[in-house]
Amino acid sequence: MSFNVSSLTNYVNEQSTDLISRLYFEKTSSDYFTLQSGVKKTDALHLLAVTAFPQDGSGCSPTASGDVVFSNRDITVGQITYFSGFCMKDLIPKYTQILLRAGNAETEEMAFEAEVADSIIKTIMEHNEVADWQGDTASGNVYINRYDGLIKIIDAATTAVDGNTSAATAITSGASGNVDSLVNAMANARPAKVKSALNQVLYVGQDTFDKYVDTLNAKNLFNVDATSWANYSVSIPGKNITLVGVVGLDGTDRMFLGTQENFFLGFDLQNDEEEFDMWYEKKDDKVYYRVKFKRGLQVAYPNEIVEFTLAS
User: Fold this and answer.
1) Nearest-angstrom CA–CA distance, 161 and 256
2) DSSP three-state, residue 263
3) Half-sphere exposure (Cβ direction) of 288: Cα atoms closer than 13 Å
4) Angle (deg, nearest 10), helices 206-218 and 179-188
5) Residue 25, pLDDT above cutoff 90
6) Which of 27 and 282 is assigned the larger pLDDT?
7) Pairing between β-strand 286-299 and β-strand 78-86 as defined by DSSP bridges
């Protein structure tokens, strides 16, 4: 990898040194996940389930009954590296020469390390957001094949509750749209013990979230404070659920509902994608960076998740 300045004209004295970077995701699904740190390769989520039976308490000799069952669900992280180098001399013919340090050191350092570093981190976060949902180690897509995402994990468990109770074949919006009914059906399909739980989240793509808002508007059902819909997150009235639109589900027509405590994000060192090396290599006359981190997903109780898949 190297600096690509082919789209820039040769140097004209442009006085402003402000770099305008492209937009990045401001919110990711991991904001709502339970974090599991210290995962080197595979760690077990230790699960406990109790069965107990009421008995006649009038006597003095009750019969021992019931069990405490221990089980595990493994969370496996993928090892991920980003690595590249930049030749500072590529910046000299263009206006970007004013961003180089003065003197001979101009080929050894960038005057805008912070901007480059910040953009690298945000780009990695974008890749992670999509992989957290759509990741598949069997895929040929380099952006999603480092670890399995939640869609594959939940589908493989085969025990999630079917939230497409109307066998819908499309998610539609507008005055005759069905997306509002589909969201309500997802909420109504929750197991009883989930309905009363705290921190319930219904994850949808931002495209589906947009359809939901448009449909409520078209049906004149938009009867909540509009400011509460900021940044693709809103409470569903009367359902004890936060509806969250996430980029990782865009284009999938999938929805997933469960408690935050049921969705686990595993990694080795918390926020380790924010720690990386950037150095000047005199032998190559380049500035390199390397980012290394581990990341993986798992759900503790798939049978406590409601999932939506379009009927074929």
Assistant:
1) 10
2) strand
3) 12
4) 110
5) no
6) 282
7) antiparallel
